[in-house]
Amino acid sequence: MRELKYPASLWRQTATAAAEPRELAEAVIADVAIIGAGYTGLSAALRAIERGLKPVIVEAGEVGFGASGRNGGVVSTKYRVSLSDMAHTHGIEVARRMSRLGHDATDCVEHYVESLGISAGFAKTGNLRCAHNMLALQRLTDEAETARRLFGDTSLTVLDARQVAAETGSTAFVGGVLNQHAGVIHPLNYARGLAAAVRARGGLIFERSPVTSVTQQSQGVELATNHGTVRAHLLIIATNGYSDLTSATEAVRQTVVPFRSAMIATEPLPGDVFKTLVPHGRSYSETRRMMRWFRRIDDRLLFGGRGAFGKDDSEAAFRALEGAMKGIFPLLEGRAITHRWSGLVAMTLDSLPQVGMLNPRMAFALGYNGTGIAMSSLIGRHVLDLAMGDEPDLSLMRRTKPQNIPFYFLREPTVRVVAGWYQFLDQIGR
Length: 430
Ligand SMILES: Cc1cc2nc3c(=O)[nH]c(=O)nc-3n(C[C@H](O)[C@H](O)[C@H](O)COP(=O)(O)OP(=O)(O)OC[C@H]3O[C@@H](n4cnc5c(N)ncnc54)[C@H](O)[C@@H]3O)c2cc1C
Prior knowledge:
430 residues, alpha/beta, FAD/NAD(P)-binding domain, D-Amino Acid Oxidase, Chain A, domain 2, nine-stranded mixed β-sheet, binds flavin-adenine dinucleotide
């Protein structure tokens, strides 16, 4: 297994204290074993407890070690496939259900934060998607119109270039769409808050305990780590972009391509900067294929973007991100960057999450394609229900078996080529 490196993130620096990590060094018996202490695994554990079951989570690093502790904290649901395309290909009812699941996902975060008393700075400030060219604005406008006309969704408002400039403090955009049903959160505090709720309700979380093997038995499954085991009736694999950490999750590894996403944070900025820069404290994302996003956190601006595939952080990717940030916000020229970090998102073949059963005892839920704070919180609940034999309506996300990426062994060069192609399309304005 490769060495686990913890990111030098602003989130780790500003997070509430975590519980003392407990390694798995014994033989534990549970109802449900879960691999991965990100939002998917933590939410599945909470759902298990609600249903009167005893869950045990086994995590290779610490709670939120994966994407859940590193992300941008933009709480919104945006599929990489547009709802209009879903309606066109699968029919209006399917697109309506997918739209509903998106709303439920954001509601799920709000519900957890409120009902569990999680202090993670969640604020429903809205998300503004900023169009980088007229074609992108047209697509955004069509999508907002589809949502309003077909699903009665009135949470989306189209803004012109002047309004977006007033909203962001940048003249780099030609317009945008404001989604009121979205917000911001401190991602690591959210993960730690969910973990505290699991523990307070009797669930067990073992950290720094990579699962090295999964064995199916007549009455369930057995997970092994270097120093302990967990036996359970059911297993949920919630490893997302980190599914290749060990061979224990081999069965789902080829369903996702890990794609590196990077973040930078500025030094503290004088208060008057925020009179023009993102004055409403929303979350903001761009329409480029190699998407970038930004938001305020306290007195800093946070700026993130997709990079290329790579096992480690890339200096060049961080420099490119800083250049992009200063291109959009020239008033940040000369401001220092104090934090840089990255993490892995999980891309799937059809750009949608995958939820299903490997066999009657083992479930999987992964592949959020870079927008998973809200969706993984919701899917964690549904995958537990699925494992229990229910059939929640997950629409296009429900899989009868894992959908593997063809020619997986070519993923590294393929991702580089795709990333380069996307950058080219973004540059020529397509
Ligand atoms: C830089 C970045 C920015 C992002 N920004 C946003 C954003 O602003 N908004 C948004 O909605 N989404 C964002 N995302 C995506 C979002 O963070 C993820 O979709 C979400 O966190 C997925 O949660 P998860 O629980 O499924 O996976 P993860 O949080 O990645 O958790 C998987 C866990 O599985 C563990 N694991 C793997 N293998 C093993 C093993 N063998 N044994 C034990 N444990 C194992 C890993 O250690 C890891 O902790 C971003 C992601 C990144 C990386």
